[in-house]
Every structure is written in structure tokens, then in C-alpha cells.
Amino acid sequence: MWGSKKDRQEEGEQEPQDDHSSRRSYDRREPDERTSLLRQPRPPNSEGYLDPDDPAVSPYNLWSVRILRYFTVLFLAITFLWWVLLFVSIFISPPGMHSRGSGFFDFAYTCLTLGNLLVAIIFFAEPAKALRITTAIIAGFLLIDMIIILADSRIRLEEGWVGIASVVWAVVIAGWCVLTDRVVAWGKREEEERLTGRPETRRTLKEWLAILVATIFTVIFIIITILMTGTLGIRARDATLEKFGDRILVDGDKYAVHLACVGNSSQTEEQNESTIILEAGEQPLEYDLEHWAYSAYQNGTISRYCYWDRPGYAWSDNAPSPHSAGMSADALSEALAKQGEEGPWILVSAGTGSIVSRVFSSRHLKQVTGIMLVDPMHEDLLHRIGNPSRGFLLWGWGIISPLGIERLGGALFKGRNREDRVYGRNAYQSGKFIKAQLQENLVADSLSKNEVVSARNIQSANTPLVIVSSGIKCKTDDEWERKQKDLTTLTENLVSWDVVSKAPHQVWDTLEGRTVMEERLKKLVKAAAKVKTPTKIE
């Protein structure tokens, strides 16, 4: 039952042989931090301590260090998911994720947070005082950014909860990275004293290179945070610029657009004249058409005009993505309705803004009594705006816009003021403006084109139409000239079509262009007065 004595002896002899073989195999195995310390050979005169280069001498022996690493990896995963969500929201706004600002600042803070966490994880076992100092500086500037965002009501409104959460998270993670490096340094010293008898002050070449690379990264992060802090300061300064008119909430109060009117509405009604509605081209309207319109108002050519900023331009907030020309037209309709503006209206627009005006006109056939297009964009040429390479370039400029290199340089060395940055020559540097251009690019050859094509089929045939084209543009671009001619058939009531020979795309930039535009507007006002408009219901 139990086997023979010989069998038992053979088994008894075999067991110690197996045990001896396994022990030798264990001893030959490459030691690491999990290898039993009692089995490691001791150097001579070590008094029982391990060699400092022994893999068992590691801060990972401490549960506090291991748990810090686990949490750092967890924070990295959370931050990466947030980064992906913010990246997507630049192109398509998830429900509840829209902020009235560009969205590039919160994305920049999240990129910075990812960078800090990656440096902390990659160089986790190589703590250094230089890393703690540079990361602490980053945390300090991020804290200043957080205070600016929370203290300035306009910036706080633009950034919304998404931007606030992003900057707060960036501050917390920067502090966490400082704490982690400090704890790892403490754990490393503790384990070295316990296992080798003294803390190790020497570093290998590999360790010095790792510390150098990590420090270079954190110094770059410091430069980035300094630039972002300066840009936030400029934004806070620009937010104090007073505006004429009001910001009006539209689209379910998701964002606000700027609308202003000049002139007496009662006088306009008495003279049976229409109110002029101005629509900007590729630049904020205050920098483009508004000066010319005000001159026409002072000359008595028109008795009243209103102007607005499309989402992302000048004082208007950014709209949720995607945002098409028809959505801009709806935002203008809602803003006018909330301000009690009932028409009749004459639409005056330029460049890409003509697309919005045409859609607006088709949706307000009875209220629109005239249309004036200044070197307008044709729907068949929208592919130029919607070019993918242009979209990628705009996205790239938007990503680096929080650094504000051009804005800071212009303010410090070129004397650029708030007016230049909000609606003037430097408005194109704003993250809001870049986001608006990107939104136009993404849907120009799809949603916007479909909307304006439909608008052309709906447009009232008897609406008076004036077109003023750039002579320079027509001479240098045959396709542009052909499409300008095609736009003269938008209605059957063409008042005039002028090609101003020496005028650029911004026709009003030349004296001849301004003169022709004002003369043709005067003719359009007279023609519009003959168009029957519905009587207002009292």
C-alpha cells in the first residue's frame, strides 16, 4: 500500500536532489527588487548591507511610492480621455460641452497636464530637485491663470465650466507631480539607508541624462505657461473695451451675439425707408464696412443702419460646432427679434458675409426690400473656403493661439491696442476668430453650400439688387469674374452692377470704391421704397 522500503528510499533520495537543483536554479536567476534579500550575496566588509547597485535597492519597495505611481497612471488615463473629448469638441460640440470661447485654451491646459504626467511617469524613479523646482514654477503660473479666469467675469463666461475645470485640473496635477517627485526622493533615500547603510549621492550617466531631458521638458512647459499667462492678461485687458450696442443671447441662450443700431427708428418709419443691415466679410465689421456706413449715415444717404458680429467675431461669442451660414442667419433673426427690429430691411454684405445675407433674405422675403452685395462670394467657390489644407492650417493656428506670441509681440513692441485686437487689424490673432474661421471652413462646401443653393431658389424675384465688384479681383481671377456676373441674376430686379477698376476685394478701401458704393446704395434705397411691405400689426 505504501510501497517498498527501496521505493521509499529512492523517493527520499530523489527529493533532496530536486530541492538542491531548484535552489541552484534560483541562485542563478538575475536578481531584481522582488528577489529575497537574504539570498543575495553580500559584498566584503558590508556588515550585512546590500550593494547600492543591487536591484533590490528601490523606492518601489515602499507601498506609498507604489500607490503614488498607480494614481499617477490613473490620472494620466483620465486626462487622456478628457483630452480626446476636448479635441472632438473643437469640431463637434458634445451636449453640455460648449463654451462661449474658442475652446483652444482648455485644450492647451489639458495638453500641458498630459505633458506633466508623462514626464512624471517616464522619469518616476529618477527624482531630482531641478524637476521639483521647475514643476513648482509651472504650478505657480497655472495658479495665476486660474485666478485670472475666475476673477474676470468675461473670461470666466467665455471659458465656461469646461475651461475652469481644465485649468483647475492642470493646477492640481502640477502640484501632484511635485508631491510625487518629493515622495519618491524620500523613499529612495529611506531604502538606500535601510539596505545599504547610507543614502546614495552618486548618479550614473544614464540617470544624469534622464534628469537633463526631464528638466528640459519642464523648462519648455514653464515658457508655455508664461506665454499663456501673458495672453490671459491681454484678454482681461481687452474685455474692458466698451462696445456700442448689446450682446444678445440666442440659440437657447447658448451664446451671445453683438448687435448695434445707429439712427432713429421712428424717423426711418416716417420717411418710409428701410433699415440697413450690415454683414461683414472676412474681417470684423467694425474694421470693414461700419466706417463707410457711418459716413453714408452722416451724408444723409441712409437714415438708419444696424450691424452685428457673426459668432466668434469681435464682441460675439463662439457658437457650438458645427456652425453653418444658415445658423448665423438664424442667430441674426433671433437677435433682431429680441431687440424689437421688425423691418423692412436692406441687406448690405461683403465677401463671405454675402452667403449669410442671401440665406437670411430667403427666410425673410417680406421684410427684405433690397440687397447690396460687395464683391460677394459665389456658392460654387465655397470650396476655396472649405479647402482641407486651409482647415488644417486654421486648426494649427488655433492650437497655438493660447500662447499669444503675435498678440504679445504686437502689444509690447508694435503698440497694438485693445481696438486692434478686438475688431481691428490684429483681430485675426484671436482664438475666437480662428475658431469662427475654422467652423466656416468645416461646413462651407457642405451645409452652407446647400443652404445658399436652396436660398437662391426661394429668393423673391422682384427684390432690388445691387452688386459692386472688385476690378483687381476680376482681372486676376477669371472664374471669380464669371461668378460675379452670375450673381447679377439672383433676382429679376437688378438695379446696377459695377466693377470698380482699381479696387481690391475690400472695395471700400479706395476712394473710388467708397464713392461708387454710396451712390449705388442711394439708388437701392429709392428702389426699395417702391417695394411693398406688409403693414405692421398694432
UniProtKB/TrEMBL annotation:
SUPFAM superfamilies: alpha/beta-Hydrolases (SSF53474)
Keywords, comma-separated and alphabetical: Membrane, Transmembrane, Transmembrane helix
Regions that span the bilayer: 70-92, 104-124, 131-151, 163-187, 208-228
Pfam families, per database record: DUF2417
Coiled coil: none
UniProt superkingdom: Eukaryota
Biased composition regions of type Basic and acidic residues, renumbered to the chain: 1-36
Residue span of region Disordered: 1-52
Statement: the UniProt record of this protein carries the keyword Transmembrane helix: yes
Protein's name in the database: Mitochondrial integral membrane protein-like protein
Organism: Polyplosphaeria fusca
Biological classification of the source: Eukaryota, Fungi, Dikarya, Ascomycota, Pezizomycotina
